[in-house]
Request: fold
Amino acid sequence: MMHRRAFLTGSAAALALTPFALEARGFAPRGDTLTAPIEIVDDVHGVPHIRAASIPDAFYGQGYVVARDRLFQIDLAHRRELGRLAEAFGEDFARHDATARLFHYRGDLTAELRRVPGDVLACARAYIAGINARIDEVLADRTLLPQEYAILGVTPIKWAIEDMVLARGSAIGNADDEVRRAQLAAIGLLDLDAIVAPLRPAWRMTVPAGLDVTAVSPADLGVLRQGGLPFGPDTPVNDPAEGTAERANAGSNAWTVAGSRTATGRPILANDPHLGIGGFGPRHVVHLSAPGLDVIGGGAPGLPGIMQGHTDRFAFGRTNFHIDQQDLFILDLDPADPERYRHAGGWKRFERVEVAIPVKGSAPYVATLRYSVQGPVVMHDPAKRRASVLASIAMLPGGGGSFAMIAINLARDWASLRKAFRLHPSPTNFHYADIDGNTGWQVIGFAPVRKQGDGLLPVPGDGRFDWTGMTDFTALPNEYNPAKGWFASANQNNLPANWPRDRIPAFSFRAPYRYERIADVLAVQPKHSVADSVALQFDTLSTPARQLVALLPATPSPAGDMLRHWDGRLAADSGPAALFEILWRDLSQRMLATIVPARAKALVTEIDPSVLLELLPQHPAIVRDALASSWETAQGLLGPDPATWRWGRLHQVRIAHPLSRIPAIAAAFPPIEGSGSGGDSFTVMARWLGDGPGWRVGGGASYMQVIDVGAWDNSLFLNLPGQSNDPRSPYYRDQYAPWIEGRMRPLLFSRAAIDGQVARRMTLKGKSR
Reply:
């Protein structure tokens, strides 16, 4: 999947080379496979510009610099995916390793690699060689190792091309949603699921034939519920990418404006992926150039290629589309033999794999992994004669996406991109604009073909609901040079109005507030500019806030009076914005307490904003009481004088090492903090709240880009909080303040522009490949 190497996403960065003077001289990393020397020019914003003699060499350079700047980040993620944590950190990690190995690809790895075009595979091999060259370098001179290694007493592991098709990820996806719906159905309240997550597009849920909903429970999620990694004294360190808030809000904004509607006559493409904020940064910006290749932008550390950016011919961006790519199957076990399950009118035996996981300081941990015809067995309970299986697109042949970005980066135009999309299983709205003035939108990703069912509840594993294959992007919507001159995606339901009901890929599209605001702005701007796109990316107008204010009673009250005179913008320096957020939480809790029956309260713990706004006119007492209560809460949080209230005082942006519960890590990696932000989940400037009762920013648009197509040096970017994960680097936090203040930085592209803003240079020299 596209996020498979974005482990512990959030934000941070750092330069692993210490002292920095070493980068000024050329040297040959041990074991390198370069065909010719590579020049690496770091600009004043910490962006490395790779100048290579061949395309694979450029990707070698990318692997090298991401390991230079983010080695511990990608190494820890790599260990986790390969199931090799216990060998470094001890027996407490062995069960996590077993789960990782459960989701390793069970097919022919050589055949998977043969699916990849030769030029793409060569670039992937070179990327891995670049990572390994940096690892060899730091192992030869351990003063270059990032500080985590000495603190934890570990060393980085080497990479192999097979790793790129082996690890498929064990994300819970929407399996917990399926379980919740089954539990609601068991108490006759399935309709209440619409309070938590209204189906978009609208759909009538039914219980799959043969599913005993009374037996479904969170226990059916099995190993998917095991939680974060057990670093630190007593408390597991959670992966922000696995948090409730992250999974509920992860998305992005993107818009493409044709030259016919811009001030310059050139297209503009803007994009800001929304991911966790608080730990390691989910993007690393790099520029790869070689004869036949010139591409720059944000990549996922540990994944070769650029995810958002531009080549010398076209700009590209992406947002999450929605395809339900997982199903939870419930299996009946044979009472006489729990290694068999009911399927296709008989009993079928599990495929069993015994793995011995190396454990530091202890004997190997032996685990039994099971697989049914549908996929990995996540729960096996002979006492209850029950097992559950998570079927996933990622586990199917061709379901891994590690090579997709390379293929996209090598494309030259819309036609060649469409060939690259065949390597891209992850659900994505792909945005495009080229130097010839063309613009395009294509939904890409693989979708399962089910014998029956809609994927909304668990299904029996007896064969009636099995998958029979999958479809690719050719079965999904697209648009090329739309007549209105612009298009946008913000995770809303953007299926065409006449889309066939039997081909709906998912029902989990987000509330349309961000998209509607973007559309309102773009529709009235006939001369859109780069500055307009920047302003829109930092737009804090809240549609739910305005709708709520319109519903407030006219009766005078301190809270109501303050909000009625407010413009609905969630600016960091706004007092009413802080009051609104406090009121919104209060209203949500009161409404849930009022409308959810006691037997469903443990299942219905959230309320969708559209549902809340629809219900409020029917409950004036809730509004009245919440206004009074929120005013008192605001005074308690922000002080007695409303004139001093500020949303940013509550909505703080704090970025810390994900392992900072370890005292030595916390001491070596000081947190980046001190400023607050505007925005929330529903503003274009997405800055959602994290899990828990606090008000801190939990995620949002940590990487941002606005691309002036063809006049590339006019393009802008931000990458919170900087390019490096080392506190000793000048690029550890240099983009924190600009990100808070909305001051984007130039995304330098031409050789002249780069050479005028050089911070340092180095040369990698190698032997013949």
Notes: Residues 1-32 have pLDDT under 50 and may be disordered. The longest helix spans residues 55-82. The chain has 23 helices and 30 strands.
